[in-house]
Amino acid sequence: MKIKVGVIFGGETVEHEVSVITAVQAMEHINRDKYDVVPIYISKDRIWYTSPMLTDIEVYKDFNELKRYAKQVVLVKTKDGFVLQSTKGIFRRTITDIDIAFPIVHGNNVEDGSLQGYLDSVGIPYVGSRVLGSALGQDKVVMKQIFKDCKLPIVDYTWFFDSEYADDCEKIFANVKKLGYPVIVKPATLGSSVGITYVKEESGLANAIEEAMKYDVKIVVEKAVQNLVEVNCSVLGNYSHQEASVIEEVTSDDEFLTYADKYIGGSKGKLKGASKGMASASRIIPARISDKLTSEIKETSKQVFKVLNLAGVCRIDYLIDKKTKKFYINEPNTIPGSLAFYLWEKTDKKYEDLLDEMITTSIKDYKNRAKKTYSFDSNILSNMGVKGLKGLKGKLK
User: Fold this and answer.
1) Residues 249, 192: one domain?
2) 69-91 pLDDT, tens per residue?
3) Both 99 and 216 in a single domain?
4) pLDDT at 263
5) Is 40 helix (H, G, I), strand (E, B) or coil?
6) Which of 232, 196, 253 is nearest to 304 (CA)?
7) CA distance from start to end of the chain
């Protein structure tokens, strides 16, 4: 019997379309001899839908017109297992059951642990990092604090809330000046290079902060790396085993890899003119760095994976000063664009095999966690005295 995989994607996030691209790519490559794929799309207004048509990228060019052909659903646990039930009508009708969820989401409200927390509450096994790893991987400030404590290499930085900027912007300017220009201004919890500005001098700082505050209440400002080379390394595994991919060197005409570099552009094949996501970015594989640096970055990537309690596949982005040969962790991507499949193909791991390994590992982890104790069969409330129960009866009326 095939395993039913519910691929969850979309959501209310500025990275919504990126999630759609990554999910459609993955659904095209999941082994249909072994798995049945159930697409579960979260629209921008947070309504969940399922339909076979949701595997076609063309649908998302005008989903508002086509959504009447999809079924609105909610994921619940019943005595029969984990099911998608219709949300329309007086009675909730079961549309289909699923065995495991596969979140392929990017950004706030979904990748940051929000969706993972819901899946944990339902109790369904799912692919990828759990709540803690997902949350840590999304917040650039908290992750930097952890990296610093673990003595992992990061650039100098400062951070603040939008309220602090409103109360005393001059203090913020002074802290940034201590870093020294140029700097990078970012929203603390976004990805895909959204809301990021390269600031060469203080005159451009205010506009950069205002741009970042459009997307987040927490802002991080980093010292820009000079003589910059950007490289990425993917890690596959769980808390007990990690495998590092080949390292890629990504190129851009800008000071850093932009959203346009990553996702805007044409392509051919099944995605029918849509961007191929991170797979379409300009890159050199393997990266043009020394064997020593390659080894150090791979080992650091495994450390990052363990320190943040990640699982599944992630991609960790690095900044290298090619003059000093020093490297710094930029950020981890707990659910990377295109699931970083193009890095694993260079290690002779086909996309189909990568997906299979991610699903299989998650099932094994779920079975292992099921052996742990999370609740007790005993009910301490059953030992309440008669007087206590009488008082409770009044409250229940």
Assistant:
1) no
2) 999 999 999 998 999 999 987 77
3) no
4) 47
5) strand
6) 232
7) 49
